[in-house]
Amino acid sequence: MEKKVKKVPTEVLFQLVGESLKENRNAIFTVTGNSMWPFIGHERDQVEVAPVKYSELKKGDIILFKTPKGVYILHRIMKLTEKGMITAGDGNTYIDGEFPRTSVLAKVSKIIRKGKTLHCESLPWSFIFTLWRIAFPIRPFLLKTILFFCRLRKKIKD
Length: 158
Hints:
Order of helices and strands: HEEEEEEEEHH
Number of strands: 8
Radius of gyration: 16 Å
Distance between the termini: 28 Å
Structural class: alpha+beta
Low-confidence stretches: none
Mean pLDDT: 93
Helix content: 25-40%
Shape: globular
C-alpha cells in the first residue's frame, strides 16, 4: 500500500508541529532543503522533533528554531552562548549567526530514512556528529569529496 503524501505550506506545517509540542508530544515531518546534507536529505528524510528546555540543549544538538524574521530552520548548535546559540547547517560552510534562546522550538531526537531510525543520541551517531562539527574548518573539502563519491556511485549504478 502506497503512503499518501500531503504537502502543506511551511506556516501550516509548523503551526501543527507547534501545537504538538505545546501538548508535550513529538512531531514528525519530512525535511526540505539541503542545508543539513549529508546527514539529512531534502525530501528523503524525516525528523522527529521533541519538546526541549533550553537548559537541556548542548553543543552538537540539531534543533528546530524560528529566527526573529520568522524563518523556520533545522540546524545544528555549534556553540552555546550567554544570549543563546550559534548554529550552522551540516551542509553549509558558514555559520548562521547567533540566535536567542527563545527561538528554540524543539530538538531533533530521530532521523528517519527509508524506514530506518537513526537515534541522534546514540553513541555512534553522537561520535559522527561531533567529528563533523569539529571538522567545520575543512568542511568545504569534505563536502566536495562526499559529493564526488555520491556522483561516482550514481554513474556506476546507471
